What we know:
Blueprint: H1 14-34, H2 53-60, E1 68-85, E2 88-94, E3 100-106, H3 107-110, H4 112-121, E4 127-136, E5 142-153, H5 168-173, H6 175-181, H7 183-205, E6 209-210, E7 216-217, E8 229-232, E9 237-241, H8 246-254, E10 259-267, E11 279-288, H9 292-311, E12 315-317, E13 323-325, E14 331-334, H10 335-343, H11 353-363, H12 372-383, E15 392-398, E16 414-422, E17 425-432, H13 437-452, H14 463-469, E18 476-482, H15 483-491, H16 495-498
Parallel strand pairs: 3-5, 6-10, 14-15
Antiparallel strand pairs: 1-2, 1-4, 2-3, 4-5, 7-9, 8-9, 10-11, 11-18, 12-13, 15-16, 16-17, 17-18
Helix pairs in contact: 6-7, 7-9, 10-12, 11-12
Amino acid sequence: xxxxxxxxxxxxxxxxxxxxxxxxxxxxxxxxxxxxxxxxxxxxxxxxxxxxxxxxxxxxxxxxxxxxxxxxxxxxxxxxxxxxxxxxxxxxxxxxxxxxxxxxxxxxxxxxxxxxxxxxxxxxxxxxxxxxxxxxxxxxxxxxxxxxxxxxxxxxxxxxxxxxxxxxxxxxxxxxxxxxxxxxxxxxxxxxxxxxxxxxxxxxxxxxxxxxxxxxxxxxxxxxxxxxxxxxxxxxxxxxxxxxxxxxxxxxxxxxxxxxxxxxxxxxxxxxxxxxxxxxxxxxxxxxxxxxxxxxxxxxxxxxxxxxxxxxxxxxxxxxxxxxxxxxxxxxxxxxxxxxxxxxxxxxxxxxxxxxxxxxxxxxxxxxxxxxxxxxxxxxxxxxxxxxxxxxxxxxxxxxxxxxxxxxxxxxxxxxxxxxxxxxxxxxxxxxxxxxxxxxxxxxxxxxxxxxxxxxxxxxxxxxxxxxxxxxxxxxxxxxxxxxxxxxxxxxxxxxxxxxxxxxx
Length: 505
């Protein structure tokens, strides 16, 4: 059996892949035997690269057909196209950034023995080093006329058909193949990297310090979520994977680091869908002497700066070609006000829970924990959430669903909290933080009561955090934003596409 001669070949069957693997392993052995005395073989420790494919394209991309340069380069890439014909063979080499160049291997330049070895040992998917003159072929394709070549890494398995779209499942399970085959996959990585750099720059420009908080914790807190549990052999105790860094970042505020942020990994033992992942990247930031208004301003700036970094404009273009405007001042609406408008009657923190239950039952809404605030939030999601497409801050939440948030300065029964919605999904949340240790203890006690009653998402009473608060925490605004969801807003992709290596069964 011979290796495919083009990346347009049909997808091989499992049996053909097994046969190809055997053939390629034999070639690997042959390369190792040939290099027993000289080193190198199928996996040399290094090759004498002098430049990159992208650099050659940028320098010589305007060559006319059949033009030469006299410039000899040494470069490497993965073979994604291969055609062997008589005295002249062709290969297309692809760099990690997706740039490509043609390698031309001719009898006149490399000699009979080298050409024969090329045809015998080189396959699609191999990493290849070539050295030779930069030219333009008769058809005007930028090329390297090869004088010397070396296998830089022998591929034992064949590449997928690069002209066939990989299924979403294949892309997620074998992201390395996705990165080889699909330009969008590479762009996703580049855009995320630019976004992270932009976030850090925006914070740095505003005097924020980046710190790190524990991922393994003796008590989970900072959010209402079901944690993952593990066990420490060294301490012979159960530990929780972090669900949020909030309580530790607030300790830093108490200690005087009053403009602080962290970009971290969080873990929540909950469902997975198009907007949720059990492991996810989170940004949290706290601003001493700020509140939920100032932290909303910061959040808008962070996202708009990220859009500029990714797209060069506040209008981003999603993967499907849709343009989405993140510019201007974003709407700020109240939860109770927007719910009242949607249902056609006034809903307030004083609305009897029986009326809320009746409305929920009529709409077929099931509320697992029948708190007044739970009914309000479930009803709001049912009637209002899907209508929010433009970036919108939804403000002033029920007090009994936000135990770490300061009571509203003028509206009884609500707290100074907002959620930021973009395209109908929640992207970020922000607060005027609760800094009164006495009230915070009361809220923790209520959470502990809910936990004892079976609410697996309720928080535990954290004495260490309360002790920190008792030393005095200044008025503070805080926010948390999912990085994966931010990428969804910037690219229009689902969460499994914005995470490079998402969890799969």
